[in-house]
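WP5 quarterly update. Target: HIT domain-containing protein. Source organism: Pedococcus sp. KACC 23699. Length: 205 aa.
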Amino acid sequence: MSDAPEPDTDFASVKDGFERLWTPHRMAYITGDRPSEDAGDGCPFCAAPGRGDAEGLVVHRGEHCYVVMNLFPYNPGHVLVCPYRHVSLYVDLTEEETAEFGRLTKEAIAALDETSQPMGYNIGMNQGAVAGAGVQAHLHQHVVPRWGGDMNFLPIIGQTKALPMLLEDVRGRLAAAWPGGTAGSDGATVATAGSATTAGSATTG
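Structure tokens (predicted):
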């Protein structure tokens, strides 16, 4: 398990108002053992694919889209599905991007089902500031696993989320469980129809 609770804040992320209480020791309970807005460097979602998989918290690289851990997760396993291309509107995605965007969302759910057995999910995107988008300029979809009792007194009264695993550890588990991919050089999976090199080169547009 890793010592550092969070990576640097310039990684791909959507910040919210919660403080995080990192509690890796509680993973045994969950698993059942009860005892900037511009393309390029200023955009976290353009920068993430250019980092190493572990460093950038990238779970899976497709040909047109990729999946990354949310730096400010609502729950353990909260991931974001993003196009490589710097585009803000869902309607502006190409047909190929739209198809892979949806497929990676389904695969994220399958990987989370395999590793965490959530009781449900919140799935969706916030498009525009009025809808609550944290990073408006680069489209991204949230996949948030949910369990009974995850809205207890800590997030409601204390504005704090208890997270039983560190982000990089969750990333590794999801990457290992990702359906239909092959392992990349430092842990993420790569779509069998594409490659990390091809995908990583399409980070702006």
